[in-house]
Each structure stands twice: as C-alpha cells, then as structure tokens.
Amino acid sequence: MCTMQNGTQMTKMKGKKKGLLRFFYLDEHKSCIRWRPSRKHDKVCEGKKSEIFRRYADNRFDPNCCFSIYYGDRVKSLDLVSTNAEETRTWITGLKYLMAGISDEDSLARRQRTRDQYPLLNCTFSEADKNGDGTLSIGEVHQLLHKLNVNLPKQKVRDMFQEADTDENQGSLGFDEFCSFYKMISTRRDLYLILISYSNQKEVLDLNDLARFLENEQKMRGLTREHLVDIVAKFEPCPENLQHMVLGIDGFTNYMRSPAGDIFNPEHNQVNQDMTQPLTNYFIATSHNTYLSGDQLLSQSRVEMYAYVLQAGCRCVEVDCWDGPDGEPIVHHGYTLTSKILFKDVIETIDKYAFTKSQYPVILSIENHCTVPQQKKMAKYLREVLQDKLDLSNVSMHECKKLPSPEILKGKILVKVQLFFYTRPYKERKLKLQFDFFQDGNSINSTNQPKKKRRFGRSIMRSFKRKVSGYKCSKSNQKPLPTFYHVCPSLLEVFKMNVSPVVVFFLAAYTNSWQVSSLDETVMNQILQLKPGELVRFNQRQLIRVYPSNYRVDSSNFNPQPYWNAGCHMVAMNYQTEGRMLELNRAKFSSNGNCGYILKPKIMCAFNPELEDPIPGHRKTQLVLKIISGQQLPKPKDSMFGDRGEIIDPFVEVEIIGLPIDCSKQQTRVVQDNGFNPMWEETLVFNIQMPQIALVRFQVWDHDAIGRDFIGQRTVAFTSMMPGYRHVYLEEMAESSIFVHVAIIDMAGKVRHFKIHVQIFI
C-alpha cells in the first residue's frame, strides 16, 4: 500500500497510439486511483473485459508489465503498462486487497483463521515432536518451519504460537493447537482472492458464484445444479456452510487441490482415443534391454523387470536370447558380465503380467542368437505358455495391406523376431544384418513353411551383395535361420559399416506392412538429417523401432522427441534408468490412459519436422501460462545438509518440447527464502507450431550462489492440459505443487480459453 501511495510512473494505453506517460498513485484514503497531470478522480467499480491490448498484434508489451482496471457506469477500461514486472505485481496484489476490503496481510491472515479444522496433520506433528512428549515447544516449531522452508520473523512466529496456545499447558502446542497454528502459516492468499472476486466479497461461494467461476475460468460447460451441489457436499468441511449450500475457503481449497483442479485432464486417465486404426498410426511404448536392472556391462538380469515395465504401460519388450547350458535358452546381454535368466521364466512372467495394465497387444522383440536346437525350445515354450494369446487366426494377415488395429489385437501377443547373419568384407570387417518381422501364431515352426521361404534369406543376401559392392557372404560365419517365422524376412537394417541411410530406405521398399525396421539411434540420426520427409512417409506404412546405441553402456536414454516428431512408432527406452528422458516418455503415454498406444495426429501425414515452417499455412497456437505460486516445495534431494540446509530460493522453469521450431524455455524470477508458499505472479508466453505432439515441462529449481539445484518436475502433454486455474503437482511429491493459470489462444487473436492479460475487477 505504501508503494502504491508513493506512486508509480506507467504508460496509459489509448487505442493504437504510442501511449501517455502518467504518474499513478493511490489516494490517502485508499479509495481512488489518481494520476498526474490529470485531475480526474473517478472511483473504480466492477467492470468487464478490455480489448485494448489485443489490438497490439505485434506483442510489443511484456505481459508481466500489463494490467487493466475497469471503472465508471459505462465500464471503461484503464490499461496500464509499468516499467517492470515487480511494480505490476505490487499494484495487482494491492488492488486485489482493496477489492476485498483488506488493508494489509495481517488482516487477511486474521480472516482466514476463522476457517474450520484443517485435515489431520498427524504425520507432520509426529515428525516435529522430537522428544515424543505429545506437544511441540517453540524450538520444535522453529525446526519444523525450517524443514518446511518457511522463513518468518521470529517475533511473528512467537505471536502466532501464543495465539494458538490456548489450553492450560502454556508454552507448548497440543495437536489441536498445532492444527490452528499450521492453518495460520498455510494461508493461500491466491485462492482466497479468487474466492473473494467471484463471491462479491461474501467470503463464500454460493452455487451461482461457483458456476460463474467454473464457466468463466475453468471453461466448464453444461453445468447442472446437481453437479454444483455435489462439489459442495464433497469438498466443504464446515457443517454451517453445508447447510446453506455454500463453499468456504477450506472447501474451495479442497476442491482446487483435488484432481478436478489438476492441470492434467482427468478424462485422459482412461483410454480416450480411437483405437481402431492400423498399428502404423500409433506411437507404442517400448522398452530396451527389458531384462536389465542397471547398466549393460555388470548389472543383474531379472524376470521382475518384465513385470515392472508391463505394469508401467509398456507394450513392446525386448528379449535377447542366447544358447544356455543343458539345452535351455537364456536371456542376457551378450558378451558382457550381466547375469543370465531362463527364457522360459521370462515368457511365463510376460504371460502373467502382459494384460494387467492394458488389454492392447504386447509385442515381444526377440533378438535371436540361438542355434536351431535351442530355437526349437523357444518355439515350444512360446506355444505352451502363451497358447491362444498367439492365435491370430481371426486376422487375415496375408491379404491385409495394412496392419490390424490395437482394438482387434486386444489380448494378443505379437512376436517380432530379429535374425542375425554375419558376413566378412574383403578387409575382414564384421557386418551384421538384421531382419525383423511379426510371426503368425498358427505357424510358429519353420518345419511347416515351404522350402522356398526358408531359402529366402540366402536370396536376400545375394540381393544385398549386388546392391552394396565390396561385401560377400562367408558361409562359415553365417548363423542359421530361426525355426519359426510367418512371412519371408527381408533386409531391414544395416549398421557397423559406412552405408548411406538412403540404402536402408531403398532396401525397405521391398518390404510389406508386416515387417518392422529396427534402427539404432546413430543410423536414425543420419536419416533424420538427410531424409526427414521420406522417413515421415515411410512411417505411415511400416513400423520402425529405434533403440539406443551400443555405446550407452550405462543404459542412459536418448531424447525420444526427435523420433516421435518423425512419426517413429517404437522408440525404445531403458525403463530401469530414471531421469528426464524417461519422464518425457511417461508424459507422452499418460495422455491415453497409459495404455501403451498414442494415436498420431492426422497432421503428421505429410510434413518435414526439421523445417522452420514444417506446415506452411498452418496457424500457430499461443500458450499463456501465469505462474502464480508454489506450495510446500521441499529442499533438493541431494542437499548437503538435508532438512537442516538453508531455506530454498525457488524459481520455475517452463520448457516446450516438440518440433525443433517449437522448443523453447522460460523461467520466473527467484523468490528468496521461501519454499513453503512462494509467490511469483509472472506470465510466460509461448508460440507453438504443432501443439499436438508437444510436451510442456514444469521444473522447480533452487537458486544458489554457484548455480541451481533441481527440486522437482512435472511434464504434461500439451493436449492433456486443462485451462484456467490449475495445480501442477510435482512428480512423486504428493503435496508439492505450483499454482498456475493456463490459456490457449490461436494467433488470429481468438481467445479459446481465457483472458490474455491480467484483469483487476474493482
């Protein structure tokens, strides 16, 4: 208030003119906003939306410096631009307090102390009670506040402590008293001011107020009285408010912190996409080296990893098969010290967990290094264990020009086999050729196949020698074909040699839709660089699997987004390695009930993901994010002193991950010494060419003198974001969140979700 009364120099916008520089200040009675040199002193009152800022199509003004005030009987607007965002935040906050009839922060806190009992805080209370006497001393309270990242003056803490200490046992807080104290420090000014603005200063929302909020801000349509009554009944804890069917600040807070107020669309927790299109129209959640629990050199191979990834929504798992002792095929990472597990145990685990999370088809990506006798054992176990899950008799695979849909293949397991041949070039360099294809469950043993199909591999080798000179097949080094396959395998991958990726596409032209190309990231990156448009078109008719380079011995993950941009279906991730890349993968597949399949957008049928204008004539989308506040942000996990470390100085970074032209990041200012309820009140604006495949990543960091420390993140598919006021809960942190306002606007100026600039209603 003092800052507002001292005054601020701001630019008053007027039509499309440059603007008038004026000195604005709050009068001594805190009732009017005046400006010099003008002597007008109209009182401000409730108004409606202004159009002034939207006339400036060139976006010349920083949204963080703009706000509008409405006044007069005819609802005129005063549109202002300050010189910096800090001044704007001061005016916005001050005007909101004035609107609610509040003159200072302590008054707001006193109002909120009349709220009803907070939810039980047994866990927090027990942790804070260091000596176990069932009460909290002032010293224990100070330790708790430090752990919660609350930095308040000691005298203010003592005053609140004494106010909460109401029983005969003075000098300590029992549990009920602690709840009152916790309620004092947990003031949500942001939510309280929203409630005040929609309740006409009643401090409770009646059903009409609630409906206006949900329609105007949250963009909900078709609200019924029954739905509004259900919200109040479910979230309002105060019996008196329930009797009058109104929502108080506690009930409003409960509602906004429920899944209904989450940034993630709750409808996307279930399958919500068309699942009847060919498999080539989907991205498929895919695991690499599924059996490994760690790195590719020394870690343990475990059957439990198959249960883990399948229950995590993965639909394509890898099985590396080698000859084992006693005639039993084994699974492990060849030529390394990783432990070995039985192939039979792997198949039994897959059979048990394949469809516990999702009913859509599972693909076994079998890398087959076994000799014929043990290949026969593999075929035997597949038939005996998986049984009718392999039966595709209801699908006409020979006549089908396109792959069947996930819907048709529900409950089925497809076997994709990689066959290996080894040849020697003239300089004795080893070349590995890889063949991928789906098998037919009714003809899994090669003894049932025509001889000319079993000879097809040799004809492919001869064909390859004609197309790539300088190489010849060495019969002594050639491994036998596997004992089971459905269609004639064809040459689909070439690596460990200097062959242009164009050769791969040339050879792939001889394939059909049932065959799969498996390419490592090195080859795929060459293709993306040289032939990105051709790759997009190729992915429309045949599945491609991309897997990490063999040089990633630590089982690290590549960035999957460039391969998704080109329409690659199976981008294989090391599910055992947590981190940014796996978080992107989780966000991608969360938008369709985490069923393992994501339908590609139709717009991907013909475009070049690497161009600056990949879709000529396509209108861009603008994402406007107002980062408002944070709640209960913890100290960094790797903090040197743990909970005893310094109180954090948090800031938020928002990143768009999608087409190269769309990738960008912005961040808020740093809030000093407050991780419990920091306030940012900053607006970030992003222009996005192809939001259908974009991810939005929220990251919270702790700023320090030598850099920054990671606190937490949440990544959401753009198409899964909800409009309006939303909480973004950090992944694996139940209570930690940031509070934001989401708006999506097309570049023609049409607001699809909410107002582009800050508006104050007085």
Summarize this structure briefly:
The chain has 762 residues and is an alpha+beta fold.
Report on this model:
The protein has 762 residues and is of the alpha+beta class. The protein has five domains: 1-100, PH-domain like (Roll), CATH 2.30.29; 111-186, EF-hand (Recoverin, domain 1); 189-261, EF-hand (Recoverin, domain 1); 279-422 and 483-599, Alpha-Beta Barrel (TIM Barrel), CATH 3.20.20.190; 620-747, Immunoglobulin-like (Sandwich), CATH 2.60.40. Strands 7, 8, 9, 10, 11, 12, 13 and 14 form an eight-stranded mixed sheet that branches. A six-stranded mixed sheet has the order 3-2-1-5-4-27. A hairpin with a 7-residue loop joins strand 25 and strand 26 (737-746). The longest helix is centred in the first third of the chain and has 15 residues, at 85-99.
